[in-house]
Amino acid sequence: MTKTKATLIGLTAIAMWALLALFTIGSAPVPPLLLNALCFGIGGTIGLIWTMTGAGLGVLKTVSWKVYAFGTLGLFGYHLLYFTAFRLSPTAETGLIAYLWPLFIVLLSGLLPGERLGPLHILGALIAFAGAALIVLARGGEGQASVLGLTLAFLCAVTWALYSVLSRRLGTVPTESVTVFCLATALLSALAHMALETTTWPQGALGWASVAALGIGPVGVAFFTWDIGMKKGDIQLLGVASYAAPLLSTLALVAAGITQPSSAILIAAVLITVGAALAAKASAMKASPAASAKKA
Fold first, then answer.
1. Which residues contact 191 (CB under 8 A, 6 or more apart)?
2. Whole-model pTM above 0.90?
3. What pLDDT does residue 111 have?
4. How far is residue 96's CA from residue 141's CA, in Å, rounded to a whole number?
């Protein structure tokens, strides 16, 4: 698989995450951990079917338990920290801190073997973050910020960035392994739900359809395509492009009539586009010397 193709596959995860808020609203009043269990259960089942019809279940036996532990802690840990952070501190500031992970991915990628982080990557990430900040802060939040909630939001951003970047070091591990990550996360989420939440099932056809859509896309297949992008694609470009998710999410809510359009959305669109363009330019400049060296 080429780097360009893997990057494009990784971008589909960002596109799917753009529908996360819309489908989550439709799934109300299901509590977060139960929703997590249902969605990852669906995503894991899809992964099982894909594995059985492709490489075969035998490929899962070739993966070390340490990899499975890493992947499960990444998926489950991120979501547990995220949900808990917003319970303790349901504010825009919490969302902004939690959304530092794309910037962390860009910065941490410079530590990976064979990767080179340029000034334009960093500048693009910062400009795109400013655009995402406009979107998140404009949404606001209900309640008061708490130090513990903001701290958990920061840890949640670090967790997802480390999971994503370290996935690059597991480039030889088949993406089918994400199937086990999802199923294990579904099990842990179900156990956490029983200990911490009151069970409330989806309401009506819309509720169940929203849960199914979440499991098929944003909280399911997206993690498989993200794995491919992180392992074989342009990690810096994907990191900066991730800031398009809150913008696209807001546009989806506007299209659904849930959110009103505003000048902040337009400004954010410009900033995120500029940031992504700078990152793409930096990646192209990085690739050019390598191509020249091969020709030589």
1. none
2. no
3. 79
4. 11
DSSP characters over the chain: --HHHHHHHHHHHHHHHTTHHHHHHHHTTS-HHHHHHHHHHHHHHHHHHHHHHTT-GGGGGGS-HHHHHHHHHHHHHHHHHHHHHHHH--SHHHHHHHTTHHHHHHHHHTTSTT----HHHHHHHHHHHHHHHHHHHHH--SS---HHHHHHHHHHHHHHHHHHHHHGGGTTS-GGGHHHHHHHHHHHHHHHHHHH-------HHHHHHHHHHHHHIIIIIHHHHHHHHHHHS-HHHHHHHTTHHHHHHHHHHHHTTSS---HHHHHHHHHHHHHHHHHHHHHHHHHHHHHHHHH-
Selection from 198, 202, 212 nearest residue 29 by Cα: 202
Mean pLDDT, consecutive 10-residue segments, the chain of 296 residues? Answer: 94 93 89 94 96 93 95 94 84 80 86 79 87 77 75 92 91 94 97 94 95 94 96 90 84 83 83 84 67 46
Can you give the pLDDT at residue 233?
94
Terminus-to-terminus CA distance in the chain, angstroms?
A: 24
Record the tokens describing residue 180, joined without a space: 């086990």
CA distance 110 to 234: 12
| In contact, 222 and 11? CB cutoff 8 Å | no
**Taking a C-beta distance cutoff of 8 angstroms, is the pair 223, 16 a contact?**
no
d(CA 281, CA 132): 20
